[in-house]
Amino acid sequence: MISFEKAIKLVLENSLPLPPVKTRVEDSVGRALLEDVRSGVEMPPFNKSAVDGYAVRAADLAKSRELRRAGLIQAGCAFKGALRLGECVKIMTGAPVPAGADAVVMVEYTSERDGLVRFEEGIKKGANIAFRGEDIRKGRKILARGTVISVSHIAALAAAGRSHVKTGALPEVSLVNTGGEIVPPGEKLGKNRIYNSNGPMLSAMLKADGIIAAPVIVRDDPGKMKSALAKALRADILLISGGVSMGDYDLVPEVLKSLGVKAVFHKVRVRPGKPMFFGRKGRTLVFGIPGNPVANFMAYLAYVRPAIRKLGRRPDYAPEFKTGVCAGRFAPKTPRRALVLSSVGAKTEYSLAGVSNNGSADILALAGADGFTMVKEGGSIERKGKAKFISWR
User: Fold this and answer.
1) CA atoms within 13 A on the CB side of 317
2) Banded model confidence at residue 246, pLDDT cuts 50, 70, 90
């Protein structure tokens, strides 16, 4: 049996980055950027109006509050010629400022009648004009290699003229639930059966990481399981829920062995998640997670998500443990490293409180928690003591 820290280390050592891919900008959120992106254009590409109003010569309004309207400029159109002395042009937001104009007066401060526009006050040169290149100069670096792309980056990438970028790849994941007692939610629940809660939960967690994987239910039959897992091993990651403990029908480790999967470790000195299995077949990573929902959830945060991120070349692949202050005493009474379901609050610092639960199958306790607080082997943490925790909110 290995330590929790050693298990994470072995998972990451065996997670070999996938080849880079060309990704549509709108599909790139959450991926690692594998190139420096420079703008192919200036932004704005021309002097444009920042408001709806009238393009003017500031010097004209210093002499007179009334100017003759010489035309209208819509966004995407242009004014022919140049603005002359005593003239103004009505202009829409985003339209190019005509030659000769050096300011735009907001329409709210004007009135128009019979082709003459009355202005309430004068204006300074440059007012309400977005000048060419003031946001981005051509050739300027927009995003640096290694950036994890967020939704706030998408508009900048698109405005720079990029439809695709070079990113890390998202691994293909096969998701398998084992057990003769589980049925998909929505189907009729027969005697001695339970609904499959782990499958949809893991599927949703994968989706949050950009991966679509529908759970497949496999009964505890050696032949059927071997056939199903053989197909599932074609993916980059095989994620199996259940069947990895010591019961008569916990068949997963032996079936995987018969399929050529080399075990890296089986059993971790942690609660929940002691029977955790991790192995490899070629480049395919195989995770066998204990079937209890809390153990499922913890294992995904600690092992599976970090592997997904490292395969995708994200720099922030390691599980993030923050430090908080305990609002109460944590005494899990286990000789193993304990990850205790907790609520996490934050004002000036994180506050950690244990969540009452009935063990690692307590789904409602998981739903009411925000994280796991880590307690050392056989130890406890007193109120106001500091502790490491991992959170998902």
Assistant:
1) 24
2) low
Full-model pTM: 0.86
Residue 193 in any domain: the answer is yes
Alpha carbon distance 92, 378 (integer Å): 70
**Do residues 53 and 80 both lie within one domain?**
yes
Each residue's pLDDT tens digit, 307-361: 999 999 999 999 999 999 999 999 998 999 999 999 999 877 899 999 988 887 7
Which CATH number is 243's domain given? 3.40.980.10
Domain extent at residue 258: 4-19+170-311
Report the domain count for the chain: 4
Structural domain includes residue 317? no
pLDDT digit string (tens) for 269-318? 999 999 999 999 999 999 999 989 999 999 999 999 999 999 999 999 99
Mean residue pLDDT of the chain comes to: 94
291/274 Cα distance (integer angstroms) = 11
